[in-house]
Each structure stands twice: as structure tokens, then as C-alpha cells.
Amino acid sequence: MCPARRRHRVPRDGPHANGRRYEIPPPDLAALDTHGGVTELARALEAALRAARAAADLLRAELFRAGGPRGEPGHCPADEEAEDLIRAILDAVFPGDGFVGEERPERNRPPALPGGRCWLVDPNDGTADFQRGHRGASVSIGLVKDGVPVLGVVLAHTAPHGGEDLLAWAEGEGPVLRNGAPLPPISRAPLQAGDVVLVSSSAAKRARGNAEALQPARFRPLTSIAYRLAMIATGEARGAVSLHRPRALDVAAGHALVRGAGGVLLDEAGREVRYGPSGEGRVAFCFGGAPAVAERLATRSWVEAQAYGPGAPGLCAPLAGRAVRDDGLLRRGQGALLGQLAGDALGGQVEFSGRARIAAAHPQGVRDLADGGHWSTLAGQPTDDSELALALARTVIAFGRFDAARVAEAYADWLGSEPFDVGRTVDAALRPALRARAAGGGAEQVAEAARAAAPRGSLANGALMRVSPLGIAGHAAPAAEVAAWARADAALTHPAPPCQDASAVFAATVAFAIASGAPAAEVADRGEALAGELGCGPEVREALAAARAGPPEDFEASAGLVTIALQNAFFQLRHAPDLEAGLVDTVGRGGDTDTNAAIAGALLGAAHGVLAVPERWRRAVLSCWPVEGAPGVRRPRPPVCWPGDALILAERLLGL
């Protein structure tokens, strides 16, 4: 193993743990020059890693500037500064190599000798999205020789889940490394149902066209073609696409990583992408992946995916200058929302099934998000539980605060969208609210109509199942204030004191978990204490105390009872070894499986963070676009009910 590889240190508890950065110390160039075991490409990789690290530090600071990144759209001064750093580091070691950078073309040069190497550098691939506040822009450093990329470093300096994500490879120097850990070769299987292909950040605006072009696979938007290509090497995506005339410097580094993992990069004609002797080259489209995957993508019609579509009104966009700097905080906020969505989708597959029936059909437990299930939904598609949570989240973001009357309007609009599932208590309260809205009533009139019609004796879980966004938004607020929001939200549909109390203590506990980063047991203890401080009644206090000893005795006889869901969530928080085990156990107990798992998922996610949500579950949720007319969609829903922007939603809630 060469010194270049030994120096990539990974945090002991995982390559992304706690937002810490892997350290890449400056190389001892004198030693590298004289050590006979170090190849020229090992030296190049070491220098490229150093250059990427220096540029990434600068760009990360730029994203978190008050007011957001500087510059006109598509041109950020920090990009020039980053390229200057990269050029200085590489030129100091390899002055005879060619260099092609995006920002200062007047300083570009060909290799000093015919047949020499050329660096292709985009210091911040995805600048326009970066300036709008998107995560996922990346430092892209590629090295080509004889028309072929022989080295690639792609460093997403502000990764979607927080922290940074570094992928690196050089020909002859071993496998692709992700944050210092070696990756296996990618699967060579053809494109299959459930596979994910990464596309541009605007793809959701043309969701149907992209879904049709990629079937049977799914799509996920992601900033930066360099990072999209790099993600192929991780196995989290089977393919990546650019339809925007990418240049050689945009794709060379990602192409190298795909090549190092056993894949190819093809142009619009299905030919392997090649580079000129001075790094020149441009294609109309490019398609990366295993050979069978890239070939299939290259033969698809992309007309509809490119055409102007109806858009996706209601989806959330990031806000420049409001990115969350604390990676742990970000991950816990994202974990609460992704945990809720994943739990809902997992439980929705067997909703209304008893424990025995679930065990017979799933001897190892329900472990994967899959198309179909009780409601014939897409893998990762929310039921009414999380559709209402999304409505609450989007409304709080739109108005910058919790406003019960505006939330009532959003809930009424949701009912007017003809959801495929709605609880009796929720329907009883929101049906009059919908009529008031249709009659032209204002927000307060709509809210009052809901409150007046809400069944006072119901002890159902329909308010608790949607309240987690208030815990995310309230992570920095006093517990009493968060509890007041949650009680006001519950009063719209579930005014019974135990329902209001359950929402209050749950939202306040989620807020504490996100703000503190405390261990799960401490979060559970704090929840019990909050029940007393917030004046919760005996039903809620007893449910929390009982969670110390075990789960509810019977999930089926009183399915839908709020205290069953609350006790189970706190039981799982105290006793489940991890989020996945807690949700699989919850669903396996039968009863109101989707709601119980959504509630437990939000609490577990807030405590353990988004990376505790299994990657295969995150992949399904973030690539779920139930747009009408798309292949395989049997329960089409309006964009406000789509979960694909959940990471952005969570960050916006944290930034309020």
C-alpha cells in the first residue's frame, strides 16, 4: 500500500461521523521524489487531494457567509480563489503538466511535452446551485493522459447530509476511496426497478419526463455532474446523467472515478467520452454507470425530460445564506423528517395487518421499502400521516413561523386533494374546514370550522403523527413554546387533552434531541421530565413511564390510540439498538403500522441522525415522485405531498 493511501484517515465511527473531516496532511514531497515505491500517479493523487482540501475549506466558508455566496448568478469570486489555490499546489509539483481550469482561461496551458498529462479542474462544480444555497457542489480535479482520465478527486465540500464527501482514485493505485475507505467494484447488472439515477437539481420540475426516460429506475436530483458521477462509485446510484452540454473539465474527475469503479462514461451517441491532448472536449449529453446501465441511458429519449413542464409548485428550495453550519444539528433535524417518512412508508406496506399475518408474510420482518403494499404506493411514498406532516412543514416555512390558522388552510387543501387515506377523526374536522375554504372564508374562519367540528372524545393518533416538523422548527425555542404550538395544532382536529398533551411532549422532546445531541436514554428521560413540566395529564405520563419497561401490550385491539403510539416511540428510543431495528420491530407488532412507525421514526431519527436511517430507505424516499401519469404510479399526488425534497425541508425548518 502506498503512502498516499495510508494517509487518508477515517473517523473511527464511520466516514461521515459527526461531521468531522478526514485529515490529509501536506505530503513530504522530497520523500516522494526519492522513494522508489511511490509512483508518479501516487504523487499526483497526493497533490490533488491537498489541493481539493484547500479549495473545499474556502468554499465551505463561502456557503455559510451571511447573505450567501457572493457574485452574479453562475460566477462566484470564491471559485476564482479556489482555482488559484488548486493551480498553485499542482504547479509546484508538476510544472510540466497541462492545466485547464474554468475560472481563468487566460492562464490555461497545454502539456509541456507531446503526449503529456493535463489537469482538468472545475474548482466548484455546480456554482449556480451553490449560490442559491444548494448542497452538493464539489471540487473536481481530473488528470487525463492520451485521451483517458487516469486520476479523479471529487470533494463535495457541503454534502447533502452535512459534512464533506471525498472520492478519489488514480490508475494503478487501488480501488476508489470514499473518505479513505476502499469501495468495491460497482454492480454490472442492467438497470432494474428501484435503482436510482442521479440527474440535475431541476429535474423535479419535469418529474414525469424524467420518470419516463429512466423507467424502471427512479431519479434523484443532485447538484454537480462531477458529484453525480462520483456517487456511481459508491453504489448509492446506478447511473448519472447530464443533459446540459458538459465540458471536459466538468466530467473528467467524475469520469475517472466511474472508470476506477468499473464503469464507463458515454456521450449522446453511445461512444466513450475521450479528451483532447490539451484537455479539450465537449459533449451534448453524457451518461455514466456500469456498461449496461450507461448504454441503456444513452439510448433513451430525453426530449420530455428536457422540455418545459408544469413544474412542481410547492416543493421547497434552499435559502441562500441560511445553511446550517452545525453538521450534527443538521443531521438530527434531517433524521427526524427522514425517520418519519421512512417509518411511514415501511409501515404503510402492511397497514391493517395483524401481527401474525405480518410474521407469516415477512419472517425476517418488513425491512425494505417496496412498491405496492396495502395502498399500492411507490417505495418511499408517504401515507396520510406524513403527507400532513409535509403540509405542516411547508406552511411553517412559507410563513416563517407556526400559525394555526394558516396550517388549518393547508390541512383543508390537503383534504381537497382527495388523499387515498384519511382517518375518521381528521376527516370529521377538516371536511367543514374545506367547505369554509371553498366558500371564501379566511384563514381564521377555516381554522374555527375545523375546531368546531373536531371530535372531542377521540383519542386517536392523527395529530401526533404529523407534529414532528414543529420539533424541528422549535429546536432553539423554549420547550413551553414548542408545546404550545403542538397543542394548537392538535386542537384543530384532536382537541382531547391526552391528544394535545401527547403532541406537546413529543414535539418538545424532538426539539430537545435535535438541539442537544444527547444519547437516546437521556432524550427519553428528558421527555418524561417534560411531561411533568408541561402539565401533561396522567394518560401521557403513564405511557411514558410504561415505556421504560416495555412496549404496549396490544397494538391491535386499540389500534390508532395515541398512547399506544407514544409509548412505543419512547420504548424504541430506550431499547432499540438502532433506528432500523426499532422501526422493523414497530411494524412487526401490527395494528396502525404506518402511524406507529412514522412517530417512532421521527423520534429515533431526531436522536440518532439521518445517517442512522438505512441508506436504502433514504434512497427510496429521496427518489419518490408520485406524479400523475408516470410509470408505475398508482397513487398520484400533488407536489406538496412528494417527499423528495425532505433534506431541504428539514434544513429550512432548522433555519427559522
TrEMBL record:
<feature type="region of interest" description="Disordered">
    <location>
        <begin position="1"/>
        <end position="26"/>
    </location>
</feature>
<dbReference type="GO" id="GO:0046872">
    <property type="term" value="F:metal ion binding"/>
</dbReference>
<dbReference type="InterPro" id="IPR000760">
    <property type="entry name" value="Inositol_monophosphatase-like"/>
</dbReference>
<dbReference type="InterPro" id="IPR036705">
    <property type="entry name" value="Ribosyl_crysJ1_sf"/>
</dbReference>
<feature type="binding site">
    <location>
        <position position="594"/>
    </location>
    <ligand>
        <name>Mg(2+)</name>
    </ligand>
</feature>
<keyword id="KW-0479">Metal-binding</keyword>
<keyword id="KW-0460">Magnesium</keyword>
<feature type="region of interest" description="Disordered">
    <location>
        <begin position="99"/>
        <end position="118"/>
    </location>
</feature>
<feature type="binding site">
    <location>
        <position position="125"/>
    </location>
    <ligand>
        <name>Mg(2+)</name>
    </ligand>
</feature>
<feature type="binding site">
    <location>
        <position position="384"/>
    </location>
    <ligand>
        <name>Mg(2+)</name>
    </ligand>
</feature>
<dbReference type="InterPro" id="IPR050792">
    <property type="entry name" value="ADP-ribosylglycohydrolase"/>
</dbReference>
<feature type="binding site">
    <location>
        <position position="385"/>
    </location>
    <ligand>
        <name>Mg(2+)</name>
    </ligand>
</feature>
<dbReference type="Pfam" id="PF03747">
    <property type="entry name" value="ADP_ribosyl_GH"/>
</dbReference>
<dbReference type="Pfam" id="PF00459">
    <property type="entry name" value="Inositol_P"/>
</dbReference>
<feature type="compositionally biased region" description="Basic and acidic residues">
    <location>
        <begin position="11"/>
        <end position="23"/>
    </location>
</feature>
<protein>
    <submittedName>
        <fullName>Inositol monophosphatase/ADP-ribosylglycohydrolase</fullName>
    </submittedName>
</protein>
<feature type="compositionally biased region" description="Basic residues">
    <location>
        <begin position="1"/>
        <end position="10"/>
    </location>
</feature>
<feature type="binding site">
    <location>
        <position position="592"/>
    </location>
    <ligand>
        <name>Mg(2+)</name>
    </ligand>
</feature>
<feature type="binding site">
    <location>
        <position position="102"/>
    </location>
    <ligand>
        <name>Mg(2+)</name>
    </ligand>
</feature>
<dbReference type="InterPro" id="IPR005502">
    <property type="entry name" value="Ribosyl_crysJ1"/>
</dbReference>
<dbReference type="GO" id="GO:0016787">
    <property type="term" value="F:hydrolase activity"/>
</dbReference>
<feature type="binding site">
    <location>
        <position position="383"/>
    </location>
    <ligand>
        <name>Mg(2+)</name>
    </ligand>
</feature>
<feature type="binding site">
    <location>
        <position position="122"/>
    </location>
    <ligand>
        <name>Mg(2+)</name>
    </ligand>
</feature>
<feature type="binding site">
    <location>
        <position position="250"/>
    </location>
    <ligand>
        <name>Mg(2+)</name>
    </ligand>
</feature>
<feature type="binding site">
    <location>
        <position position="595"/>
    </location>
    <ligand>
        <name>Mg(2+)</name>
    </ligand>
</feature>
<keyword id="KW-0378">Hydrolase</keyword>
